[in-house]
Structures are given as structure tokens and as C-alpha cells.
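Write out this protein's structure.
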Amino acid sequence: MNRILYSLLGLALFASCADTYMESYQIKGSSSVSLLDGSKLYLKVAKDSTLANFDSCEVVHGSFGFNGRFDTTRIAHLFMDDQSIMPVVIEKGDISISIDKASQKVSGTPLNEELYDYLDKHMQLMNRHQELSHREAQMFLEGYDEKTIYEQLSIEAAELPRQKDSLETHFIIDNFDNVLGPYAFRMMTADYQYPILTPQIEEIMSKATPKFKGDFYVSEYYKAANEIMARMKGEISDSQ
């Protein structure tokens, strides 16, 4: 009987100790998008190469919420059915989500504030790049010759990619040891048809910390990119 009591006590102590390492999060959301009303929302987190459900709720009259406990700060994605809406950092504190037709934003906690400041700046650069085509067409309609159009727009067209690369690189380096660095790296490489090594990636990896290099996606991407590069150079054969 004493052995059973000691075992139960040990389990209780273990659970108590484990609970002390858990943190609480609370998410309150609001939406002016009528399509979301009555919908089921899911928070999904990456588990190796798949997504797993982390929490769920229903939108009622434009309001929704999540709350719970977690042991590791992580990036989640807010989903409606199979449609990803936006990223959310699951971290300690009161998190606010705002969704309308023009924008989606998460605020209230440090990493979420930093992430959405970065996403806003990134979007501004992307919008400026798209505006160049519109300005080119507008100048043509206004009677400008091709040489003048080229002279006015070419400098900005060349500068915007440099600004984008600089923004991405500095953000990743500044966040090597938290969840934002690997997430931004995944965003940066998502449009590549296959893993490649660019000067930007080489610069990032040359400065990377062990924690960043140990991230599952970063590690698998960099390994695959090096293997592809080695095959292209003939350093290893396709049969290896």
C-alpha cells in the first residue's frame, strides 16, 4: 500500500513540476468579415513537415477567442476550414486579433508585435513593386517616351529587391534564437521551386546560431540545397 501511495505522490509531484513550466495564453479576436460569422476557426502548428490542430473555436457575432496553456513558444496559423488566414505567435500574454477586408493583424504581445511590424514593412515593399507596372502603363498613356519611363523607373525597380533582401536578412538574423527567425526564413524560401543557395541565404547561414541551424525546416532546406548544388557541380552523382 505504501508503495502505491509513494507512486501516486511521485506522479502528483511530477505533474505539479511540469505544470510550473507551462505558460498561459489568451487570444481575443474580432472580425468585420461576414463570411467568418458562424465559422469554425482552428489554430494549427507545424509538427515536422505537417500541421496539427492546436486549438479551435467558433466565430459568434464577429467575436472569437482561444485560451490555454503551452510549454513552448511557437508559430501557429489561424485557419478557417482548410484556408490559412494568418500567422499567430503562441506566447505568454493577452493576444488580440483583428480581421477586416483590408487587413489582418495580431497585437498585444512582444513577438506578435514584432512579426506584424515586419509583415507590414514587407507588404509595403511588395506593393511598391507592383505599383511600378501601373506607373509604367500610366506614363505611357500620358505620352512619355520609353527612354524617359526607363530612366525614371529603373533605379527604383533595382532598389526595391535590395531593400526586400535587406529587410528579410536583418529580421532573420535579429531573430535567430526565437520562432520568428525560422518562420521568416520559411517565408523567404517558400516561392522557390526547389531548395537553392542564394547569396542572401549564404550570408544568413554564415552567421546562423546553432539553435537556428537546428530548426527542422532550416536544417532540411539547407541540407537539400547543398546536395542539389553539389550535384549541379558534379561533386556527387545522382545515384548517391
